[in-house]
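All the exercises in this workshop are built on plain-text protein records. An example says more than a description, so a record of this kind follows:
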Amino acid sequence: MPSSEDENTDAPQDNLTYVPDSRLVRLAKAGNKEAFEQLFQRYRGPVRGYLAGRVATGEDADDLTQQAFLNAWRKIHTLHDEDRFKPWVYTIAMHLVYDNARIQ
């Protein structure tokens, strides 16, 4: 019977070395930068796309994407449900959009 870790719907079907987000989050919480890098690689494009639709320029989207993941790395220890990394990083990005709009 598969564990809940194996039930990640974002898992590519053809990649046998796929590591679930929850495992990468646990490793990142322990200070493993390579695990966080995998999360960054997995979600950088989608988060940037989300941001690109909400800010004025591609450069702003790039900057906010970097900031979102920097904030996520700094606060990874506050993520209590390791299965929720994706919505958590999107929430961080959304807050950055709001902050950016206030500054503009």
In short: The chain is about 65% helix and 0% strand.
